[in-house]
Amino acid sequence: MSPSRSDKPARAVAPWVRTRLRTAPWAAVSLALLVFVTAYLAAALPRAVDTYETEGLRHDIRTAAARNSVLQLTSEAPGLELRQAEREKNLAPDVLRRQHDQVLTLIPEPLRVDPRQTVHGVRTVTRVKGLDPWLPRPDGISPEFLLSSPSDLAGHTTLRQGRAAAGTARHPEAVVSAKTAESLRLKPGSVVHVPGRVSAEPIAVTITGIVEPRDPESAYWAVEPLVRAPALATLVGDEIKYYWQAALLVAPESAPALLATLGDPEVFFRFMPEADHLTTRDTDRLATVLDSVDGGPELVKIRRVIGPTGAFSTELDTIVGSYRSMRDAINPVVAVAVFGIGAVAAVVLAMTGGLFVARRDSELALIRSRGASLTGIGLRLLGETTGVAVPAAALALGLAVTTVRGPDGGSGGIPLAPSLLATAAVALIAMLVLPLRAVVVHRVPRLHGGRDDLLTARPSRRRTVLELTVLVLTVGAVASLRLRGTADGDHLVSAAPVLVGLIAAMLLVRIYPLPLRWAARPARRMRGAVGPLALARAGRSSSTGTLPLLALVLALATAAFGGSVLAGVADARDRSALLAVGADARIEGSVEWTPVPAELTEKVRGTAGVRDLAPVQVEYGVSLPSLEGVSALPMTAPLVGVEPGSYTRLAQRTGFGPFAAGLLASTGRGGPGSVADTDRVLPAIASPSVAERFGEKPLEIVSAAGVFRVKVVAVRSTTPALPDADFLLVNAADLTRRVPTALLVTGSPNATALRTAVTDSSGSGDFLVTTRGEERAAYVDSPLQSGAEGIYLGAIGAGAGYAMVAVLLSLMQSAPERTKLLARLRTMGLTRKQGRRLLGLEALPQAVLAAIGGTLVGWATVPLLAPGIDLFRLALATAPGLARLDSAPLRADPWSLVLPAVAVVLLTGLAAAGQAWWAGRRGSIKELRAGDAR
User: For residue range 260-282, what is the model confidence (pLDDT) as tens digits?
Assistant: First the structure.
């Protein structure tokens, strides 16, 4: 028997969440889009930071010189306590290869080596002299040879002449590189004799072939450059003498013969580290492992294989340490930007929840008045936001993992936890803002809400306590940042700019009624009702307008701070490049005291982009007299001869010791005819230490440019020709021998065009061309720097985007009320033009206040925090003390302060005008219905 209709269960009520999402799809889509974008940025940020930090570590290891990054193990050759046969047996190729293979298995993670670049063998620590009289001796000094037997020589060379070396311990054979053969006059069949250790009879090494390195720049050859090419060394004594240093590549079978030489032979194993598998998280492990191999448990294991005298040497630990110091210096600066944009995003999410609560205020008030519990309302609203925020955040996380990949194109071992936590934080804020705000607003049932105006609202005690707490935290953070800087990695310190913006926003909210009251009085006397009505409407805006104001102030302060950081970095690079070059371009001889031909000067002057040219004559190492006479310590300084006119213009433009051209007025007694006139007095401009040595009396200078007396007439700390050195500046026209040695170029010439002009006039290799642009580009050689700058650019862009969202959300929150107001006022004769003016003037006060406040906060934050923030490592790819700048201070950038503020005001005005235009196109019947809340 089928059940009757009355026996069937009652149909379930439609689920709350599904019903609400269906009835307001655009609100759900808007929230989902905002959560998606915010969660994507939050998830992508830690992955991007990890990526550029990993790239920085790999870059530093890859680009380091091979002689610095190589891992080298050495062991003394078998001692005399062993029999000769046993000593020779221990240096056999098979024995060394077996030791090499065993050492490879002992290299601990995360160290990995490139098997193609590993080399082992026997070499002499001390170079041995070549005794043959036919060997070249430039200054009568015998050449010195390095004897080395590298493994796998045939795999890294091409045989040009003769045959490969073989030989034995009694009859050693070797090959030489083509450059060595050419310089030392060696050929197949040549016999080089070197001193023996035991007997007076020298050891004869037969040259069997000439080889050419296949990849001269590879680590196999670059660790010890002498094996690929000879060098002309100097012997400094009463006079400088030159002699040759070269290498003989002994066959591995002949390696035991090195025991009989005076070269103190040793066994070596060289390994080139690989960097493709390393990540930034391996830095600490890598440093620990290197310490262990250098003098810890790992070295003990290695000594069991290569002998008790085994030693480890590398500069890889220095490279890793330099990377860590740069990373630790840059990360706190980046953290400031992260905190800023994170705070703006959180406030905008909170504004979204506030908008939804305002739109549904009457609905929630009705439900609450009919007995709905706060828990029930909160849980249902939580279900709504969860159904929107969680899927959007999950999609954002997946997109971030897919698009932001490691340096190798894959996941790169990037940990998922930071991105997951950041995404969860965004989703949690988006989920909780709406229910918490609704619970707070409707904690007491109410039928009609009272006025909630900024003009009439009175701060509660809780708000006052909260503001005072934030003020105390801000003062502590700013004081800590100024005293300790960002090096300690304290998050409170990194949040100092955000806290300053928060305090400023709270202060602006408190003083906001004052300018409105001041403006309302004269507005009452204006003709027309638009002005007074707009001010009255602005004053009656909800006191929840604190969030839009806070969002705009934080966004503007973040943009101003980020722009100031980037401007400070650019200024530091420009300044350092200018200190290195002294002008926009510099042309000087590759050897000191190389005269610049007049033809070259005219050729450069006519090059496109050259606006001015200053020839200078620089003579280094001129002995300086002293007021104290011979009792003073000796001192030398460069003597610089200049043309006062062109050089003064250069000094004025660069800011390096500008002076009036009249200070170096010519005496009219220079040139070859003044050789005997040693009593003439030349006016000079000197650096502080040189001026102190000279005093106020003229003293005699003896130089290649002439003999004359000098009187210091002005003191400057720097000068374009020698920006970072002591100097003595005189008029070149007064020198006995005037020979320009450098050209300082002003303008924007092309580096290639300058080099072409130099080559056409003087030939290649005689003069060096250095441009300011090339020098500046050299300061950005690490992904750490470019990655951190990218984060700041992204923070500025994201801050601008969130500022736009904040403006739109602020206008949307009051859009229904404004539309209703316009409809009612149009029935009273208000024109569409007046309606647009009304909405624009109503929205502008808060936007102008936020713009002014954000600009002032940004302007005040920079000098307030500048003492604790040094942009040196972010700007320059070197350590402090190794660059021409001592520091890179933070400074306020006017464009970063003004442009975002003006953009906010314009955007607010355009949005208000657009809202008025849209409201004017719609009919007003719906808004004029009495008692209809739809």
Answer: 888 889 999 999 998 888 888 88
The pLDDT of residue 16 is: 67
Q: How many angstroms separate the CA atoms of 238 and 241, rounded? A: 9
Closest CA relative to residue 203, chosen from 133, 129, 136: 129
Q: Which residues contact 870 (CB under 8 A, 6 or more apart)?
A: 329, 485, 887, 888, 889
Residue 906: count other Cβ atoms within 10 Å of its Cβ: 12
Three-point CA angle 435, 436, 440, nearest 5°: 115
User: Measuring CA to CA, which residue among 911, 918, 927, 919 is closest to residue 840?
Assistant: 911
Residue 97 has a pLDDT of 92
**Tens of pLDDT along 648-664?**
999 999 888 899 988 98
Write down the mean pLDDT value for the chain: 81
Higher local confidence (pLDDT), 747 or 238 = 747
End-to-end CA distance of the chain: 49
Question: Two tokens at 655?
Answer: 């800011």
Half-sphere exposure for 777 (CA within 13 Å, toward CB): 5
- In the 3-class helix/strand/coil scheme, how is 67-129 assigned residue by residue? HHHCEEEEEECCCCCCCHHHHHHCCCHHHHHHHHHHHHHHCCCCCCECHHHCEEEEEECCCEE
Query: Residue 15: CB partners within 8 Å, gap ≥ 6?
Result: none
This prediction's pTM: 0.80
Q: How far is CA 672 from CA 245, 738, 762, in A?
A: 44, 9, 25
Output 319 or 832, whichever has higher pLDDT: 319
232 Rama class: left (phi>0) / alpha (psi -120 to 50) / beta: beta
Specify the DSSP element, H or E, that contains 192: strand 191-194
Q: How many CB atoms lie within 10 A of CB 923?
A: 8
Residues with Cβ < 8 Å from 220, sequence gap 6 or more? 117, 119, 150, 156, 213
- The answer on pLDDT for 633 being more than 70 is yes
Residue 426 in 3-state DSSP? Answer: helix
- For residue 110, say if its preceding peptide bond is cis, omega within 30 degrees of 0: yes
CA angle (369, 429, 402) in 5-degree steps? 140
CB 664 within 8 Å of CB 683: yes
Residue 562 sits at the vertex; the CA angle it makes with 812 and 802, to the nearest 5 degrees, is 15
Tabulate helix, strand, coil % of the chain (nearest 5). Answer: 55, 15, 30
pLDDT at 812: 73
Strand boundaries in 689-828, DSSP class E: 699-703, 706-715, 728-731, 742-747, 767-771
Ordered DSSP codes for 757-790? HHHHHH-TTSEEEEEHHHHHHTT---HHHHHHHH
As a residue count, the chain comes to: 934
pLDDT over 60 (residue 454)? no
For residues 231-241, average pLDDT: 78
Query: What is the rounded CA–CA span in Å between residue 618 and residue 594?
Result: 10
R_g (Cα) of the chain, nearest Å: 39
- β-pairing, 706-715 with 681-686? parallel
The sign of the dihedral angle between the CA atoms of 917, 921, 925, 931 is negative
Would you state the structure tokens that stand for residue 817, as one six-digit string? 């009320």
